[in-house]
Write the structure tokens for this entry.
Amino acid sequence: MPSDFAAVFAALKPLFTRHAKKGVVLHDEPGKYYLGTHEVRAKDGYRTWLGGIEIKKTYVAVHLVPVYADPSLLDDISPALKKRMQGKNCFNFRSIEPELFKEMGQLIDTGVKAFEKAGKFKT
């Protein structure tokens, strides 16, 4: 793992931790932070996941489930952030990019609001 990935992780983590009191922290360990909702699925007993960040082998992944549930949340993101997408709800970063991190934070905030409206997060 490149040493700068720890710095990228540290810069992104607060974008999720500021919402921790509204949800349930599923993982909080070096290189991995996941935040779930209060909703527990009846079928398998797992919590609905809001998202999180994790250091991978070649990048730091940011997952945000609300954009998978409602792709219209992505309508106004910049081409630069869109370029960071892999799949339907994952964004990859290799270095600290303040402007993109700010936009990512706004997208996370929008996702939290969408989950609050759906009753999955405390308001």
Strands lie at 24-29, 32-40, 47-55, 60-64, 85-86, 90-93.
